[in-house]
Amino acid sequence: MTAAIAAPRVPGKFTIIDALEDPHLLGGLAPFHDLSTWSKWIVFLKASYGLPLDDDELPIFRHHTGRSVYDPPPGGYPENVCVVGRQSGKSRVAAAVAAFEALRTPSEKDGTAVYAILVAQDSRSAINALFSYAWAPFDQVPILQASVSEKRATDFSLKSGVVVAAYPCRPGAVRGIRIRSAVVDELGFFISTSNRPTDEQMLVAIRPALSMTGGKLFMISSPAGKTGALYRIFQKNFGRDDSTTLVWKGTAAEMNPRHSAADLARMKRDDPVGFRTEMEAEFKAGTSNFLDSDALGACVVSGRTEMRPIKGVHYSAFVDPSGGSKDAFSLAIGHEEKGRVIIDLVRGWEAPFKPTGVVAEIKDVVKSYGIHTVTGDRYAGEWPREQFRAHGIEYKVSALDRSKLYLEMLPLVNSGAMELPDNPTLIAELERLERRSAAAGRDRVDHPPGEHDDLANSAAGVAWLLAPGTDDPLRHIF
What we know:
Elements: H1 16-21, H2 39-48, H3 57-65, E1 79-84, H4 90-104, E2 114-120, H5 124-140, H6 142-145, E3 148-151, E4 155-158, E5 162-168, E6 179-185, H7 199-211, E7 216-221, H8 228-237, E8 245-250, H9 252-255, H10 261-270, H11 272-278, E9 287-289, H12 293-299, E10 316-320, E11 329-337, E12 340-349, H13 355-368, E13 373-376, H14 383-389, E14 394-397, H15 402-414, E15 418-419, H16 424-431, E16 434-437, E17 443-446, H17 454-466
Parallel strand pairs: 1-7, 1-8, 2-5, 2-6, 6-7, 12-15, 13-14
Antiparallel strand pairs: 3-4, 4-5, 9-16, 10-11, 11-12, 16-17
């Protein structure tokens, strides 16, 4: 077998499964030494290339595709979509597909380059990670090292004339090249630097280039919201026996059995909504209640509105400033006790008020708890810093916005590791918080239109300051 594949590309009948099983090819990579943990991926790849499935593999195919029969077109499906949970091994598989396609792609008769491309979210870390996976077999497997003619920062050329290249999710980046295969990683999260989705436009740019070569398109992604290209393709093709687009769906645990059951249980407890999307590969609904009312109620200490300062206890404070005409100016103070976050005090100054007067009042409160530094958001530029500095209090800017603060607080509430005062306004604000699926699947947590979350924001800020990892200097911008 080894002698037959010493050329820069594999023979035509050599399959991707052969390449994964061969220690002189993709099987030479450490992650693929034991293919038993990749069994579901093996079935997906077999189906994608139209390879025979045995009696044990057919039920797996039906379960993950929603189809009743296995009847692939000759050579497999031209477009293949895999919607899976995070840490399923999807980027490793995506890169293996790109490497295999590069090896089996014939040289162009006129000597021009033909591409096997990988497309990742428009960030250097994502592109570098995906490219490093694709480069690994050509860097680590001796027989494949000989097929490389040149390596550059985000692409390398084979002696056959094939170029393996990683691109950002910018449609213009892939125009003008001949594409033999395309692997699109995390399609559900493609967004430009100006916060505009680029998923549809990216596919529009890739498909014509593939049609000229008869190449394959693979889209491997975690799900996002119920919008965009990934969801549209899923809705149209999943479970359709007559579709020429293969859509596969699997949870993180199904696709990667190395996940710890204890870790999965903890993640599900800490954030059930996020778990369904991130790990169970379910598309998000548009809007949902953020906090479970029973979990929130369990955190409220009945009858305890405020706790007086205790000597020797270290306290932290978070403020949500306001200009005094509309929103409340709020303050929360808390401390950590035996691994639990205790919110000692939450106060709000309702509009209208004079902001300088509120700052003076807050100064008296925080100093009574031995606090000389408060944290808040970027509200009004330098104004909060100047006002608090005049009273001998340092104002630090939080590195997280209010939405992220709420998401950080969620595990504390769901695990019962937080104590909240019996403050009706605070509890009402927390109960009404909404979780929305925003651009590229990013969750946003905020109050409903026309309502307020001033007290809730301050409480979430203190929880974040006191949660594990509070010594991280990146918690503040300056």
